[in-house]
């Protein structure tokens, strides 16, 4: 895509979903992936993704240079939690910008938090990732993972001319590996990548999404 398309774009919601039924798998069972606990929940839902996503993450890890690892921050997010995140951000934006219409608020909110009805995290299709060195140090990516647009002053988008050359190279390294295995990124968040969801289908020209929203059941 040459244009910047947000999750709130009406075209995304029109993409049909033909869920293939793949299970949600726990990435913590894979020794080659490092899982960060910052978004951990009591059921461990955050550490799950669809099988096809996990397979691609393992392949992406193999494409990285020696000494560089993927750091998995968050995968699956229950629909109720996604709705809570989105509505809270909408409320914050409306309070800060009372002159905005509801449509303007939703569009601005969707630059950072996906509308709940199409959220790829709730389908187990999305992952938030960064890179770490062999000693566990997070590489410079220009901002922290999940930095908001206001906090980051707009440099969360991958091109970001105002970040350092080192951060730009690290983003390119992450992006090249994930793109090579079929994932797509949301243009306003360098850390957010997905496969099989409606946004992926729109980005790749697929006829339908293969993953739709799922409720999580802990295997424990």
Fill in the keyword field for this structure:
EC 3.4.13.22, two-stranded antiparallel sheet, 220 residues, protease, 13% strand, alpha+beta, five-stranded mixed sheet, dipeptidase, hydrolase
Physical arrangement of strands within the biggest beta sheet: 2-4-5-7-6
Listing every helix as H and every strand as E from the N terminus to the C terminus, the arrangement reads HEEEHEHHEHHEEH
- The N- and C-terminal alpha carbons lie at a distance of 41 Å
Structural class: alpha+beta
What amount of the residues lies in strands? 5-15%
Overall body shape = globular
Calculate Rg over CA atoms. 17 Å
Q: Report on the biggest sheet.
A: 5 strands, mixed
**Low-pLDDT windows of residues:** none
Fraction of helical residues = 25-40%
How many β-strands, per DSSP? Answer: 7
Query: Averaged pLDDT, please?
Result: 90
Helix run count: 7
Would you write up a description of this structure?
This protein is α+β, with helices and mostly antiparallel strands. 32% of the residues lie in helices and 13% in strands.
Task: Map the helices and strands.
Layout: H1 10-13, E1 24-26, E2 34-35, E3 48-50, H2 51-63, E4 68-74, H3 79-96, H4 102-109, E5 126-133, H5 149-152, H6 165-180, E6 184-185, E7 192-194, H7 198-204
Parallel strand pairs: 2-4
Antiparallel strand pairs: 1-3, 4-5, 5-7, 6-7
Put the structure in a nutshell.
The chain has 220 residues and is an alpha+beta fold. Helix content is 32%, strand content 13%. The chain has 7 helices and 7 strands.
């Amino acid at each position: 895509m040459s244009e910047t398309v947000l999750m709130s774009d009406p075209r995304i919601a029109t993409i049909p979903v033909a869920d293939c039924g793949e299970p949600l798998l726990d990435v913590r069972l894979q020794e080659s992936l490092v899982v960060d606990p910052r978004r951990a929940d009591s059921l461990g839902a955050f550490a799950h993704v669809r099988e096809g996503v996990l397979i691609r993450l393992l392949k992406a890890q193999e494409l990285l240079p020696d000494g560089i690892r993927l750091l998995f921050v968050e995968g699956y997010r229950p629909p109720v939690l996604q709705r809570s995140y989105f509505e809270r951000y909408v409320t914050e934006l409306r309070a800060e910008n009372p002159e905005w219409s509801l449509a303007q608020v939703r569009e601005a909110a969707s630059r950072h938090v996906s509308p709940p009805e199409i959220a790829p995290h709730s389908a187990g299709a999305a992952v938030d990732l960064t890179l770490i060195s062999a000693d566990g140090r997070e590489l410079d990516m220009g901002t922290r993972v999940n930095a908001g647009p206001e906090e980051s002053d707009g440099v969360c988008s991958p091109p970001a001319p105002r970040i350092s050359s080192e951060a730009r190279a690290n983003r390119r390294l992450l992006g090249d590996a994930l793109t090579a295995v079929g994932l797509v990124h949301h243009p306003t968040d360098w850390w957010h990548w997905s496969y099989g969801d409606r946004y992926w289908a729109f980005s790749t020209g697929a006829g339908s999404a293969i993953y739709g929203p799922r409720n999580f059941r802990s295997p424990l």
